[in-house]
Amino acid sequence: MSLPKQGAAADEVLAALSELRAADLPTHGGRTWAYVYDSGLDGLDALAHRAAEAVTGLNGLDPTVFPSLLAMENEVVGAAASLLGGGPETVGTVTSGGTESILLAVKAARDAHPEIDRPELVAPVTAHAAFAKAAEYFRVALVPVPVDPATFRPSPADVAAAITDRTVLVVASAPSYAHGVIDPVVEIAAAASARGVRCHVDACIGGWVLPFWRRLGVRLPEFDLSVPGVTSLSVDLHKYAYAPKGTSVLLHRDASLRRTQYFAFADWPGYSMINATVQSTKSAAPLAAAWAVLRHLGDEGYLDLASATLDATRALVAGVSSVEGLRVLGPPEASLVAFGSTGPDLFVVADELTERGWYVQPQFALGELPMNLHLTVTAASASKIAPFLGDLRDAVAAARAHGPVVVDGGVVEWLRGLDPSTLTSEEFGGLLAGAGLGGGEGFVLPARMAEINALLAAAPPRLRERLLIEFFGLLYTP
C-alpha cells in the first residue's frame, strides 16, 4: 500500500478501521483468556480515552517542559510504592510495559558493575522471557535455574549455588506467568543479599492484585519491597490496574539503585540528552490514562475488582479440576490458571474452545514441565465461568472423539535435523507448504491450529524460535 493520492474523509477512515477490527478477538466480555484485562466496568475505558486525548500533543521526553506529566508520574509511582512495600526512599519510573521495566532493571544492575567483564543474570527457567530478551540486548549471560516439576518453583539452594562473582542480578517472580505460582522471594532475596547482588521481583502481573487478595484473607508468601534484599520490582498498570496499554512501573528501593537505569549523553552538539527509559520521545497518553484510572477507582474500587477476580479464579480452578482428564497445575497462587491433561489432546481442546467462542493460550512443554492451556482471569471473568466450564467439558469430549494429533515420525526426524542457524526462507516456505499453509495462493493461517502446534511442539526450542522469526517475517510483509 502507498499513500492515497487524495486523503479520505474522517468517517471513511474510521469505517475502514472498524472493518479491520472485525477480525480481532474481543477485548471485553471475558471470552479472551490472554493478552487483555477487562474490569467489566462501564465507562472506565471512556475515562481513560478522554484523559489520553487531553495530553496527546505532550512529550514525556523533558519533564521540565510539561510539569503535568511529572506530577502524574510521581503520583502513579507513589501509589505503586505504597501498595508494594516501598518506603520513603523508594523511587520509580513509569515505562511502556513489563518488558521495558525488566529491560531497565537488568540494565541498571549491569551498569552498576562496569568492572565485571562477563556479567550474569540468574533466573528460574519459569522467569518471563523478557529477562532472556534483556540478557540478549545487554550482553548479559542468562543462567537458568531449574524448577520443581510439581510445584514449578526453584529451590533457594539452587539459586544460591548459581550466584557467582559475575552475577549482577537475581530474579524471582510473583507470580511466574506460565503457572501462576509465587517463587520463594524471601529466601532468594536473602541469597542474593548475602553475595551483595541485586534482586528483582517480577510482579508485573501480580503486583496490583495480590496485595488486595491478602487483604481479602488469602494467605500469600511475602514478595514485595518490604522483603529484605529485594532491590527492585516491576508491576504493570495495564494488567490488574485496568489501565490501557501500555503502562508499567519499575520501582527501586532507593535512588542510588535507579541511577544506572538512566541514559545521559552530552558529547554532541545538540541538546544534552537524559532518558529515564528506553524511549526518548515518549507518549504522554498512557501515563495520563493510567493516572485517571487509578484516581477514579481508588483503593476501594480495586479491592472490589480483586474480590471479583478472586471469586472467579477459585470457581475456575474448582471447575477445571472437576473435568475428567484435566488437572490444574501448581496449584496457582494468583489469577493465572494453567491446566494439563491426562488424556485429551490439549491442542485439540484449544481448537474446540475457539470454535465455541473462547480463546485460551497453549503453552509448550519444557523438559519435565508439561504442556498446558493457560487462562488469565480478570474481574470480567466472573460471569463467564459457568458457560466456559460447560463448553470446556464439551471441548474435552470432542477432543477425545477426535483423538490426538500425531506428527509423522519422519517429519519429526526431519525437523530435529534442521539447523536453526542455517534455516533459509526457502526451507521455511517448504515447511509451510508441507503443512498446508502455503502454495499458489500464498500464506493461509488455518482455522484450527492443533496440527501446527503439534509440529512446533516437536521442534527443539532453538528451532522453534527460528521458525517463529520466519513466521513473523512472513506476517510483517506489506
TrEMBL record:
This protein's UniProt keywords: Aminotransferase, Lyase, Pyridoxal phosphate, Transferase
An annotated Gene Ontology molecular function: transaminase activity
Cofactor(s) annotated in UniProt: pyridoxal 5'-phosphate
Pfam families xrefs: Pyridoxal_deC
Record-listed N6-(pyridoxal phosphate)lysine modification sites: 239
Lyase recorded as keyword: yes
GO biological process: carboxylic acid metabolic process
Domain of life: Bacteria
Protein family according to the UniProt entry: Belongs to the group II decarboxylase family. Sphingosine-1-phosphate lyase subfamily.
This protein's name: Aspartate aminotransferase family protein
Origin species: Cryptosporangium phraense
